[in-house]
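Q: Now give one record:
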Amino acid sequence: MGIELYLVFAVVILGLGMYCILTKKNIIKSLIGISVMIKAGCLSFLAAGGATAQVAVVIIIIFDAIMAAIFLSLAVNVYKQTGSLDIEALKRLWG
């Protein structure tokens, strides 16, 4: 398979992640959308090839895991404070 097919697949995955972020009101579902978009970026790096791209992908995956842990702890705290995982519930915490 050519690099073009991998890049088209990466763009499709990126679009699915963006759709998930823009349409879902749940914090966990938005986090999944962000993670899917990061994986699409990793796929495009790997499609470009080379050892440098592989090192960059490993670093990106590490940062993705750190980000997921931070967002999940944020989601747990929002749920404890508001009783909901709705993004709109965060507005009540500002007051």
